[in-house]
Amino acid sequence: MLVHRAFARQHRPGFGDDSTFDVKNVGLFATDHALKPAHRQPWIAAFALALVFTVAGSWLNRSFATPSGRSIVATIDSLREVKDDRWQLWVKHPDGTFQRYQIKKDAAAALQNRTTVKMEVSRGAMGFDLITRFDPEK
User: Fold this and answer.
1) Which of 55, 80, 84, 108 is deepest in the core (most CB within 10 A)?
2) What is the spatial distance between Cα 24 and Cα 78, in angstroms, rounded to a whole number?
3) Where do the domains of the chain lie?
4) What is the pLDDT of residues 94-131, one digit of tens each?
5) Contacts of 126 (CB under 8 A, 6+ apart)
6) Topology at the third CATH level for domain 66-136
């Protein structure tokens, strides 16, 4: 009997009487690395802070934008309804590149049966340009 227990501890961990082997902490079932305190995993904090700062920067840039007086006239390639009151506007810019924008239903209604769109460019609070308005070209 003693030989059998020694054999179990030596070759098959977890089957001896005084073994501390835990199946939950092996391979795919390992949980101890996920439950460490945050100070032991600084990459999680760095990732979370990067995500928060990116979202906050985008919101600041869009919320405090000032009109720049510039506009872009582009050819409408297609206008499709996606969900609820959101529509996708595909345009061809003067340089030949295609771009997709999500617009609201009222802007899409104004652009129905039109071939060109005038897009107003604004300067965001952080210095990045963004399209703030879509009007039919007259």
Assistant:
1) 108
2) 54
3) 2-61, 66-136
4) 999 999 999 998 899 999 999 999 999 999 999 999 99
5) 57, 60, 61
6) OB fold (Dihydrolipoamide Acetyltransferase, E2P) (2.40.50)
